[in-house]
# Entry
Amino acid sequence: MVLNMLIAGFGGQGVLFMGKVAAYTAMIEEKYVSWLPSYGPEMRGGTANCSVCIDDEPIGCPIVLEPETLVVLNAPSYDKFVDAVQPGGKIFIDSSLIEAKCIRTDIDAYYIPCTQMAKDDDLSGLANIIMLGKVLKETGFTTFDILCEAMKKCVPAKKAHLLDANLKALKLGYDYAE
Amino acid sequence: MGEKFLMKGNEALAEAAIRNGCKHFFGYPITPQTEVAAYMAKRMPKIGGTYLQAESEIAAINMVLGCASTGARAMTSSSSPGISLKGEGISYIIGSDLPCLIINVMRGGPGLGGIQPSQADYWQATKAPGHGDGQVLVFAPSSVQEIVNLIGQAFDLAETYRMPAMILADGMLGQMMEPVEFPEVVPTPHEKPWALTGTKGQRKPNIVNSLYLQPQELERTIIERQKRYDIIREKEVQVELQYMDDAEFAVVAYGATARVVKSAVSKARAKGIKVGLIRPITLWPFPEKEIAAAAKQVKAMLTVEMSMGQMVEDVRLAANGACPVGFFGRTGGIVPSPAEVLAEIEKMAGGAK
# Structure
């Protein structure tokens, strides 16, 4: 599988949008893709999560129960999902909001202070996109150019003025070194 | 086939209905199918169609009855508790021999239940969508693309046989996004001499009615309808078979569950278990012949559903004792995991190989 990713955080952190941009890269590359959101009470202020699968083969179960790639944007999501990551998998942690350090030795943990970076660079609300840039860097599920192209498809026309900030956030995350 | 879109099942469903000539949508919002209504609300006014949010599910289905009686393509959409409310209207539409499309994006029940995916309305859809001797065509897509492909067929067959058609989806299919393309629609013309379009003084009035106080007359109408049902059972069954050629075991599953089962069957095959998948695409008519034939071929069958076991009864009837038919299900909004299903397949095959 090219990408088997679970993204989790609070409603409003852009969990679903982040997944959607990742999913669009598969549209551009003509691969199989599924995007499945949690829905219902989660969307109304609780925790939200989103499963994204990209593959060269048709996708069976679209629910990611044991992610190869886990992105956590808040502490409850870290606690809930850290043990589900497949051995050999990767966990991406917004270290501005999550104090925990991953004690598992069979997975790679990446700590990115996305929320702080977004504040410092006047990219408020784009911590999720900074994170997506870092996920791309470490997993290589597509190319940076294709991810930028996917972003262009996902930013609606009436929000076109936000595109540059989103592309800047992707680059910031992509270039971030711990 | 043209451009591919990344769309939610609910939105793709609505777009496909519009492309297949549906101009009249009557609904009432309910999770997890609200995007159907939202999409219709956005699009219908732009194409000169009707989007009407009724005061209740009961009102919506009766608006469909009225609209369908004019020969127009009409539809409604809801989720499990809402479909129960529509039961009376569905029965009236069956009794009036009218075509229409009904969407059920299933959630957990009974009662208000929950809002997560479920398949616990199989009995309702296939056995008793309303009271009386009647059926609706039931289609069970397992991907967003298949939802799109089946919408056109559902409208066409509903009009061919003058009866309601139902798309039986679930919260997972409704909410997930997948790439989808919309096939060129070649409209199948359907003569509708029964439609209430105004006589213009040229013909006798048509009557759309489901009330027959003379039992002989009511029995006659029911028997005539049953003859159409027999033709449908003969001609309109759709089923997908995967890895069945050399299968020693089979799993029967439909809709979203069939996707989970496909993942499990592939893993079981990789472990050397000769297991195949039988995926009914039409739940009514049910693929009885295909399952009967498979039951003679395999050592055992397993039915997997998001319910406590509903379709399994039809599988057992079709297998008719030719092989044991086991069941595994999760319910209440829980989707079975591929690992759970794999464990059940291994159990059926007599332990891990």
